[in-house]
Each structure stands twice: as C-alpha cells, then as structure tokens.
Amino acid sequence: MTSITFDTLASAKRMKAKGVKPEDAEAFAEELRVTSETDVSHLATKDELSGFKSELKADLRELEAKMQNVESRLEAKIAESKAEVIKWMFGGFATIVGLLAAILFKLH
After folding, report:
1. Which candidate, 41, 11, 38, places its Cα nearest to that of 27?
2. Between the CA of residue 39 and those of 7, 9, 33, 42, 101, what are the distances in Å?
3. What residues contact residue 28 under an 8 Å CB cut-off, 6+ apart?
4. Each residue of 64-101: pLDDT tens digit?
5. What global pTM score does this model have?
6. Which of 2, 13, 85, 95 is the most exposed place for a label (fewest CB within 10 A)?
7. pLDDT (0 to 100) of residue 15
C-alpha cells in the first residue's frame, strides 16, 4: 500500500490561521489524514483504463459488424417473405377471378 504522510497538526494550524474554528480545523485535518491513508492500490491506473477502453472499442466494432450481418440477413428474409406473400396474393386473386368468371359463364 502506498501512503502519503499527512501532518494533521500543521494542517489544523494553517486552517486556524485562516480563520477556521479550532474544532472544525482539527476534525477536517483528521478526515484528510484518514483519506490520505486510504488504500488505493486496487484502483485502476490510466494505462489499465486505456487498455480497457481499447478492448471495449474493439468489442463494440465486433458487435456492430455482427449487427450489420443480422440486419442483412433479416432484410433478405423480409424480401423473401414479401415475394412469397405477393405470389400467394396474385394466385388467390387469379383463383377468385377464375371462379367468378366460371360462375358468370354458368349463369348465362
């Protein structure tokens, strides 16, 4: 653990000299000491964050490529389905027209 030596007495004296109440200066100096002794060794470094950022960007590019692939396949499926629906609609329409024509010829 890397720690920084913090002189609470000197800090409190400086704050008192600036007009801070003695009890407030001492409490604040003590909190600064506790903060300076906090173990920060588990925190990420700038280099680690930069590496993580690069990995995230690469993952994002990969996901975007996969999404484009899925989008292309979906567009192809939609086009196929559209063609199939149109084919069935024209087939049904032709059948109806044929039936109507047969009925009309039968009636005359």
Report:
1. 11
2. 18, 22, 12, 7, 90
3. 11, 12, 15, 20
4. 999 999 999 999 999 999 999 999 999 999 999 999 99
5. 0.47
6. 2
7. 85
Cα 63 to Cα 60: distance, rounded to the nearest angstrom: 5
- The alpha carbon of residue 96 and the mean position of all alpha carbons in its chain are separated, in whole angstroms, by 53
Contact status, residue 42 vs residue 1, Cβ threshold 8 Å: no
User: What pLDDT is recorded for position 42?
Assistant: 84
Residue 25: how many CB atoms within 10 A of its CB?
20
Q: Are 40 and 2 in contact (CB under 8 A)?
A: yes
The token duo for 105 is 């010829």
Contact assessment for residue 25 and residue 15, using Cβ atoms and an 8 Å cutoff: yes
Cβ-proximal residues to 54 (8 Å cutoff; 6+ apart), any chain: none
